[in-house]
Specification:
By secondary structure, the protein is an alpha/beta fold. The protein has 18 helices and 17 strands. α3 crosses α4. Bound molecules: ligand C2E and magnesium ion (2 copies).
C-alpha cells in the first residue's frame, strides 16, 4: 500500500510531489480561505538539451533543478512539485501577488546559476507564471490554468525581460475583459476605427524618400489613439491579427495607388506577425490582391521579426519562399533582438535587414552599440542584403550611418509616423539631413 501511495503522489524521477499531490494540497489550502499564490515554471530550451545531450542527461538535469528549487529559500510550508516534463509548480500559502513575484524572481536567479554535469555547463532559465488567490480565482483548476497562461506569456516575452509574469485578464484570451477587447477590435475594423500611419524610409546615399513603413493605430471612440503595442500582441494571441494584416494590406494598396496617380513612387513596408506566416492562405490572398491591379508585388516589402520565424521555422520558411517567388521583398525587422539570427539569415530569401532601434538610438553615445551597428551593416552587405537603420533621432547618428554605408534610414529625425493623408504634403517639404561627422568618430569608420 505504501508503494502504491508513493507511485500515486510522488514523482519517481525527482522525488518531488507530483501533480496529484500538488492538486490535493492546493484544494486543502484553498479550503482554509487564506490567501495563497501558485507559481508555474517551465524550463527554457529543455527539449534542446534532451535532443542534444540525451534523455539520461536530461533526467539528471531535472533532478538537479528539483534540488535547487527545494533548497531555494522557500518557507517550510511552501510546496514544490513536478507536474511533468520540464514543468514545475510551487504553492506559496499566505503569499499575495507581490510576495509571489519576489519569490519567482528569486527562484529564477537561483536557476540561472550555471549548472555543471559531467563536462557540460548548462545555462538554465525558466519562464514563471503566477496566479494569486483570491485575486485570480478561488478554485484550484482556475488558478492552475491561469498560472499556466501567465507562464506562457512570460516565456513569449523578449529575452531581456524578466521571465516572470503575473496573470491578468489581458493575457487571457478566454477572460471576459479579453472577450470584450476582441469584440471591440472586431468593431474597430467594421466601424473603420483603424488608421494607417506612414513613416518615411530614406535612401542615405541620395537623401531621397524611397518608401514608407505602414504602422497601424487604433482611433478608439472613448480611449483615443491607441498605439500598436497595446493591441497587436493581443491580436496575435487571439488570431485576430490575420484580419488586421488583411486590413493593412488593403489600405496600403489603396494609398499606394493614390500616390502613384500623383506621380509619387514609393515602396510600402508592412509588418507581419507569426500567425500571418503560419497562415497557409496568405500567399493566395496576396495573389488575389495583385490580380485586381493597383499595387504590384515589387512595391511591397514585408517586415518579419526573428521570433515570428522561430515559432515554426519550417512552415514560416515555406510561406516566405512562396512570397519571395511572387516578387515581394522580405525584410528582417528588429534585427539583433531575437535568437538564432545567423543560422536563419542564410536560409531565408531576404532582401533587407533592419537594425533594431535600440542599437541605433544608442550608437552615438555607446561605443558597443556603434560597433554592433557597424558589424551588422558589414554582415548584411556580405550576405548581399541592404540595411535599414530604424530609430534615427539625431543628425550625428545620420552622419555616422552614412559614413558606415548604411543603405536606408528611418526615424524621428526625418519623420515620425504620420496619418496616411499627410504623407504627400510632408514630402513637399522634405530635405535630407545635413550633418558633418564629429572627428571623435573617425577611428570607428
Ligand atoms: P516596428 O516594426 O519595429 O516599427 C518601428 C517602430 O519604431 C514604430 O513604433 C515607430 O514609431 C518607432 N520609431 C521609428 N522611428 C523612431 C525613432 O526615431 N525613435 C523612436 N523612439 N521610435 C521610433 P510603433 O508605430 O509604435 O510600432 C511598434 C511596433 O508595433 C512595430 O515595431 C511593429 O512591430 C508593431 N506594428 C505596428 N503596426 C503593425 C501592423 O500593422 N501589423 C503588425 N503585425 N505589427 C505592427
Ligand atoms: Mg517594422
Ligand atoms: Mg523594427
Amino acid at each position: 500500500e505504501q508503494e502504491i501511495r508513493r507511485l500515486a503522489y510522488w514523482d519517481t524521477l525527482t522525488g518531488l510531489p507530483n501533480r496529484a499531490q500538488f492538486h490535493g494540497a492546493l484544494l486543502a489550502q484553498l479550503a482554509s480561505r487564506k490567501p495563497l499564490s501558485v507559481l508555474m515554471l517551465d524550463l527554457d530550451r529543455f527539449k534542446h538539451v534532451n535532443d542534444v545531450l540525451g534523455h539520461a542527461f536530461g533526467d539528471r538535469l531535472l533532478r538537479q533543478i528539483a534540488a535547487r528549487l527545494r533548497s531555494g529559500g522557500l518557507a517550510e510550508h511552501d510546496l514544490v512539485a513536478r507536474l511533468g516534463g520540464d514543468e514545475f509548480a510551487v504553492m506559496l500559502p499566505g503569499a499575495d501577488a507581490d510576495t509571489a513575484i519576489d519569490t519567482a524572481r528569486r527562484l529564477r536567479t537561483l536557476l540561472e546559476q550555471p549548472l555543471t554535469l559531467d563536462d557540460h555547463t548548462i545555462d538554465v532559465s525558466a519562464g514563471i507564471g503566477i496566479a494569486a488567490h483570491p485575486a485570480h480565482g478561488s478554485e484550484a483548476d482556475t488558478l492552475l490554468v491561469r498560472a499556466e497562461m501567465a507562464m506562457y506569456a512570460a516565456k513569449s516575452q523578449p529575452a531581456h525581460e524578466t521571465g516572470v509574469m503575473l496573470y491578468s485578464a489581458a493575457i487571457d484570451s478566454s477572460s471576459e475583459a479579453s472577450l470584450s477587447l476582441l469584440t471591440e477590435l472586431r468593431a474597430a475594423v467594421a466601424q473603420d476605427q483603424l488608421r494607417l500611419y506612414l513613416q518615411p524610409k530614406i535612401a542615405m546615399a541620395t537623401g531621397a524618400v524611397v518608401g514608407a513603413e505602414a504602422l497601424v493605430r487604433w482611433q478608439h471612440p472613448l480611449r483615443g489613439m491607441i498605439p500598436p503595442m497595446q493591441f497587436i500582441p493581443f491580436a496575435e494571441q487571439t488570431g485576430f491579427i490575420r484580419e488586421l494584416t488583411g486590413w493593412m494590406i488593403e489600405r496600403c494598396s489603396m494609398r499606394y495607388a493614390e500616390l502613384q496617380r500623383r506621380g509619387i513612387d514609393l515602396k510600402f513596408a508592412i509588418n507581419l506577425s507569426t500567425r500571418d506566416l503560419l497562415d497557409q492562405h496568405l500567399p493566395a490572398k496576396m495573389e488575389r490582391l495583385f490580380a485586381r491591379g493597383g499595387v504590384q508585388p515589387q512595391a511591397l516589402c514585408l517586415e518579419i521579426t526573428e521570433s515570428a520565424i522561430m515559432d515554426d521555422p519550417e512552415r514560416a520558411l515555406q510561406t516566405l519562399q512562396r512570397l519571395h517567388a511572387m516578387g515581394l521583398r522580405l525584410s528582417i525587422d528588429d534585427f539583433g533582438t531575437g535568437y538564432s539570427s545567423l543560422a536563419y539569415l542564410k536560409r531565408l530569401p531576404l532582401h533587407e535587414l533592419k537594425i533594431d532601434r535600440s542599437f541605433v538610438m544608442g550608437m552615438e553615445t555607446d561605443r558597443a552599440d556603434l560597433k554592433i551597428v557597424r558589424s551588422t551593416i558589414d554582415l548584411a552587405h556580405n550576405l548581399g542584403l541592404t540595411v535599414c537603420a530604424e530609430g534615427v533621432e539625431n543628425a550625428q547618428t545620420w552622419a555616422l550611418l552614412k559614413a558606415l554605408h548604411c543603405d536606408e534610414a528611418q526615424g524621428y529625425l526625418m519623420g515620425k509616423p504620420m496619418p496616411e493623408t499627410d504623407f504627400a504634403g510632408w514630402l513637399l517639404d522634405w530635405h535630407a539631413p545635413q550633418a558633418r561627422l564629429r572627428t571623435e568618430f573617425a577611428p570607428f569608420i
